[in-house]
Each structure stands twice: as C-alpha cells, then as structure tokens.
Amino acid sequence: MQIQTNNVQFEAGLIRRVNIGGRKASFIKFNTGSKRDVKALEGIETLWGGKNLSGGIAEEARILGKDAEIYGLTLQDKDFRNVDSSKVLGLVTTGDIVKGQETELFKIGTNPKYAYEQKRSRRSIKHIALTMLDNIKKMNGNSGLFVNSAEPQEVKFLEKSGVRF
Predict the structure, then answer these.
(1) Within the chain, what is the greatest distance between any pair of CA atoms?
(2) What are phi and psi of 86, to 5 degrees?
(3) Distance (Å, rounded) from C-alpha 151 to C-alpha 161?
C-alpha cells in the first residue's frame, strides 16, 4: 500500500493495530521503493544476524524494489516513516494481496529473541508468525494462503495455520 499525496511518497504504513501476548503491536507494510524502509530491513538483517530469513527478505527488497510485498509486526506504535528495526517482531513476504483471492507466501521470519526454533518455551512473546498470517488473511478476505514450497521444519506450522501446499 503506497500512500501518495501531491506526489510525495511516505514510508511504511500501518495496516492495523493488533494485540499479541498482552502487548499492543502494529502490523505494517514496508514501502520497498523507499530507501529508508530498505535501510530498516537491512537493520533488521543485522540485528537478527541474518537469521530467520532476514537476509533473504532484505535482499528481496533490494532486488525487487517497489514491487516487493513485505509486511512486518512491530512494537512500534507511531512514526512509521522511521521504522525502528529493534522493535520489529517478525516479517513476511507475499505475492499480491487481492481481496477474494488466495495469497502466496514466500518468506516468514521471526525475531530470533522470540522465535520458537531458537527459544522454544522461553519466549516472552509468542505466536508472531501466526499473527502475521492472520492479518494477511484479513487483508485477502479470508480467502486462504498457499506456498509452493516449504522447508521440512516449516510444514507442521504451516499446516496447523491452514496454509495450503
């Protein structure tokens, strides 16, 4: 979602406010045509040490530019012109989201501090990826999600989340 007024393009935009683990968070869309948002994604890659697909997601933004569909869940609650990389909980990349049509998922990554794979039960915030998927479903009118390929360790989570293969 790019917001334009008088040909001035704004950076990341708020999609909706959400609650996760008793905390208020924001589901946002990155404007990957903006150098500032790409820098924020590169900052996430650095903070996460390139783990949990953060490197691939930042690379996707650099390669596809404004055509990349990248969403995030963040504890930041305002000033999305300046996304604070340290507050981002998770990222997801998708194909085009159209109400009434299934959406293809490409990459889902959770901050290693909260990721099941790294922390298991010692996470202070849980269900980050699920929250992002639920918000993508809301955007496409609950028309479903699908992937063309998944890593073996992702299959159980994706099936549980209702993602079609």
Answers:
(1) 49
(2) -70, -15
(3) 15
